[in-house]
């Protein structure tokens, strides 16, 4: 069986493992105050082309989201998110567990726009309702779509006009930034949003997310929150070394590009086989719609999620590629699909 | 500079790194449902000689403590802990952040006994006060002391008589179990307490704690809590592989024994140099009392914490050894102390 | 100006004020342990025809909801509620502030049915999502509709089959039980649901809600939760005396019936004037749809909420009657509407 | 039996009941936006001689404390309190339930000083510990002692120098301000502290506490917090009318003075009978130390708490007087004590 189920099925990129090995027996400061972590942070600031930001390394996305959002908000303040948002659906109520409501916005493509935000603000009129304060978006979204620079600018303007924080869940930000439809860079994120994170776990690391805090007022005492929420790793070097290796040269982007290329190769094959897709997805997650019989055949050789029933005869499935996806397996999948089809 | 500051200054035991490398390119299930994690859990059950327990792997101690304790308690229930307890002092209010009060008990040696517990129960009489429900102890304690089997049995009896949960923070449990004064085994913990964790981070792992839930009523839906609190690693294999390697043979205990041996070697040297200790500590943390001038001299070559002022001329320092502490460095320290002394 | 804005614009029924006065200088136990509170609770048990229930008195609905729900649920458990549910919209995230997510179900008439519940259960499959555990309904709903006994039985069966708690927000339960379309009694609530509250604030009391806990497993230590959430009144007599007076004879039901009668009188007048309603409402809240010009005219003499825009020319308004609504004012309103209309 | 158990055994001062009656049938805005509440707030500002403060009315002390403190603090921030502090002991972990640790300071007389605060700050050095941010004091304290103006000024200076909020629990503030040893006025509180509350429940009201927020940065969106925590009474008039009546003339102070006078009368009698006191208490709570046999005799006619065992033969009891305590009963008590003594 070959898995297109997700982008965390494989281990870590071999270069990272080597880097861990080389530094292994050095005695280093704990809790992320070692030299590797310091260097990784300095390097990330360089890549984002901004010195005036704070960066903290985490071991997972849910932990990053819940620590950041609960640190940023006062008790009565709420999050606005798309109904597909990871924090709304797939984090077991982690945000609510810190006391904050998430206001769900129905969207079709996973993306929020300024109209969505204004309507949420409009509906929350007084102290009998929560106060919307932070807008959560994912880039790419959970539906594989990505934000254009123009779209992000509009969101940013809207948030600043209404004193809302704009936060980007970048669990797969590498895939967004390396998408052929992307027109943004890390630098733009640094300018347009209040905080975002750069996902390592789904792009070659063993684990690791780098939270970037851009807005000054959100920086104070942040390490207290990491510790309180259980996210301060004793051997913080583990995170620092990985990000250092990912960004020392362009490894991070090369890995993301490979994942996107593999997704595109799948898309081409699926399109040629005559099938359409649930969403327009220029990233490493695609959602082809296939007849149920075809899906069953494919399930004999491949692992993937059946995402959504379309009608009695067909369903959308989700295929995810990663830095480790093998081209030969993608070609084999396409061929199998072609053959099943016949 | 050589560090005796803590037991997480070095990386991971090389055998573990090799094990990570060997399995690295396999495609595995995420979130701790991979075969390595399953095997590690089966192996731990074997070591604890009990099948009727649940085991969950975490990436750090604070996260383990906060997830377990908040899952076990109802909102009005509180924890009883020694005033030196890690959760009371050094976890940034992580337990309170989940809504629970910790009742602090003044103790001199870091250890709780059944009299302490009864007095806490006696002081909490009605619904205007919290209800004490879980007793938290560390073994070894934060002062280096360890519990005897008899002491743990008495605590266990007291907790069962008063319907309290007994929870053991085992961040350094390896050191306790390998202490020359220890008369307990993993198996005894499984029988006497309701939940405990086996610390990997401070005993050779990159990170990793194995929470063992013994009491049936505490097991239900536990994975929901791990996910909600941000502790469910996407690449859970990272934890499974490490525990598998640590317990495949006796590596875990060998590493802990080495740390204890090094601490003992330090103790002998320090005693021979004519100094006494703040506490009786048969584990890998010792607290010698030294003249301030001597401390300053030692600080030129060694890193360690100055723990507590004793009087105007002397202070207790904390020296911690680990699986990676080099015997030659310990001997050098002893010699330096001897020479400083002259 | 005469107000149809809500049912808490007036003070307290005079008989209650008299009862407060008569007992005023007695020395009584605090915190709800006085004899009046005890008698009130005994009386309510009689009215519900069940001894095997626990009853606690609160000073407001939000406090009742948040205390009960947070006491009943474990951290990963969630509430299912209609999208119009008071806890979802108008309590400033009070439930989320205690750590629990509310799963919103789109409904048109404010009522949940067993299909809604099953679909929510079906969508929550594993530990990456919260576990639905408590079904929250309001009777009457926030849209003025009420549940029939048959509907409640079906909900109750569904909840029991799926191990869900069924909780009824009875802020206006008097109005529901005295509706001409109602076929239930307090006694039925006691049998079919796990907990519900009997609202006094909106039916003649100065303040006061009586929470009834029917399910044994939800009763333990409940007073701790009331105290912890700030709801244990020092002079608890204030609540006990009011409920005693409301239920000593049928005052509670007479007041609710009056409110319903006044709402019905309004409905007849509005219907005769040729207007329709947003929802079918047999309780003390009605939602007539009127031309915007008519609404403006009425606003010169009456206070009420404009509830929802229907189209460019008309809107639904909300009219609420209470125990204190004067028949002459209702007739005047109807006449004014008739005249405006001409 | 006559009760000296507490100051909430009786109902409400008759003048307040009359005021409630007079306004009872008026239609008023809900949720504290009625004219009576507005007038009460304006009047309180006048008494405090400061316009630049925000005032909110609550129904009880625990609710006031938990709402204010959780609104004022960020998640990692903690409270410093005396070990006798009401929030630490007698509010069922209400503050911890909102996520915040309370740092307990051992004191003998219930009072904190700036040395206590500095030592707490000194002990909290980094992000592994909570950050002390709010100092909670009670005036009078739970031991009956009161702060002098000079003492409060020193605390205030210390807090401002260290960027700490100073918060005063004024459940019995009337008794403090009317103590013969007091040299402060409401006005001084307004200048020296960041927030405090004026307790009505224990001084003649049915219920009611007026929270005064002095520091600008703590005022924003405060009503959201009241609603979220369940403290926003629908018929807010109930609170407004009471405070209006209490402060319309000097009723509030007269009632407090009566309570103090009665306590003093008790003290004189007890001293004359040859007994001493556990603490120096110039307010309405006193703690005489009596032989156990005497206590038993008194318990035949009087209700009070036995506070603390002093030795095998004697205990301290707590006697509390109130606005409603009858002088004849106090004299009777003194006489009974005198007689028992013989």
From TrEMBL, chains A, B, C, D:
From the UniProt annotation, give the residues forming the signal peptide: none
| Stored InterPro entries | ArAA_b-elim_lyase/Thr_aldolase, PyrdxlP-dep_Trfase, PyrdxlP-dep_Trfase_major, PyrdxlP-dep_Trfase_small
Q: Name any Gene Ontology BP term.
A: amino acid metabolic process
Do you know which Pfam families this protein is assigned to?
Answer: Beta_elim_lyase
Q: Where is the Aromatic amino acid beta-eliminating lyase/threonine aldolase domain?
A: 18-284
What cofactors does this protein use? pyridoxal 5'-phosphate
Q: Which UniProt keywords apply?
A: Pyridoxal phosphate
Q: Which residues form a coiled coil?
A: none
Gene3D superfamilies per the record?
A: Aspartate Aminotransferase, domain 1 (3.90.1150.10), Type I PLP-dependent aspartate aminotransferase-like (Major domain) (3.40.640.10)
Which terms in the Gene Ontology molecular function aspect does this entry carry? lyase activity
| Family named by the database record | Belongs to the threonine aldolase family.
Name it.
Low specificity L-threonine aldolase
């Amino acid at each position: 069986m070959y898995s297109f189920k997700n982008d965390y099925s494989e281990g870590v990129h071999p270069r990272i493992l080597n880097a861990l090995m080389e530094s292994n027996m050095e005695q280093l400061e704990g809790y992320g105050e070692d030299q590797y972590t310091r260097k990784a942070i300095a390097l990330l600031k360089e890549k984002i082309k901004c010195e005036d930001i704070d960066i903290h390394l985490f071991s997972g996305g849910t932990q990053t989201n819940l620590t950041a959002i609960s640190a940023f908000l006062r008790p009565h303040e709420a999050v606005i998110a798309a109904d597909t948002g990871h924090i709304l659906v797939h984090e077991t109520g982690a945000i609510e567990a810190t006391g904050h409501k998430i206001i769900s916005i129905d969207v079709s493509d996973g993306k929020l726009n300024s109209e969505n935000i204004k309507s949420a603000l409009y509906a929350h009129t007084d102290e009998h309702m929560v106060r919307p304060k932070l807008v959560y978006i994912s880039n790419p979204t959970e539906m594989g779509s990505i934000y254009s620079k123009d779209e992000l600018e509009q969101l940013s303007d809207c948030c600043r006009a209404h004193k809302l924080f704009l936060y980007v869940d970048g669990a797969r930000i590498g895939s967004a930034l390396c998408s052929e439809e992307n027109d943004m860079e890390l630098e733009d994120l640094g300018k347009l949003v209040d905080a975002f994170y750069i996902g390592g776990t789904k792009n070659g690391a063993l684990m690791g997310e780098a939270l970037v805090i851009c807005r000054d007022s959100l920086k104070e005492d942040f390490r207290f929150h990491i510790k309180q929420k259980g996210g301060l790793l004793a051997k913080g070097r583990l995170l620092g070394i990985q990000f250092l290796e990912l960004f020392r040269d362009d490894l991070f982007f090369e890995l993301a590009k490979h994942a996107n290329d593999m997704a595109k190769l799948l898309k081409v094959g699926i399109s040629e086989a005559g099938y359409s897709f649930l969403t327009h997805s220029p990233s490493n997650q695609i959602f082809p719609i296939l007849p149920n019989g075809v899906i069953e055949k494919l399930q004999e050789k491949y692992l993937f999620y059946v995402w959504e029933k379309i009608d009695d005869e067909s369903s959308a499935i989700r295929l995810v590629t990663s830095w480790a996806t093998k081209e030969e397996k993608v070609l084999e999948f396409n061929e199998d699909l072609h053959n099943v089809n016949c």
